[in-house]
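Data card: per-record layout.
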Amino acid sequence: MCLSSKWIFPRKAKEDIVVYKEVYCDKEDNIYSPYMFTKIGNIKNLPISFKAKYLDIEERIEWILFRNLNSIGAGYIHSYSSPFSTHYSRHTCIYKCIIPKGTKYHKSIDDTQYCSKKLIIIEKILTNEIY
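The structure for this 131-residue chain is written out next.
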């Protein structure tokens, strides 16, 4: 999933930023990223701290000149500013998370999404019991 930002370079979080992460959940309480289906961890081990899988050198950041937008792809973890901004479906759960102080991040042009280098999953706030 890509994020469009007006920032060319990532910012560093001056304090913890509360965000929300949409994930797939399975019957064994494992959670996965919704687009790449990468296993994040097991909710029995909360809080879960994880970093982006790609190195900085592999980041896919494109500067779209005609729009003055920066498109951020691989190398960051996607999250939302509100649980109501997610694409919640019957197959996903929503978790409250923190982008820790000092973490590099980008914010979307409409302030509803984040992409960060690190994310700490704190607690489930919305679930779907259908598997």
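Known properties of this structure: The mean pLDDT is 77. The chain has one domain: 11-53+77-126.

See the next section for split statistics.
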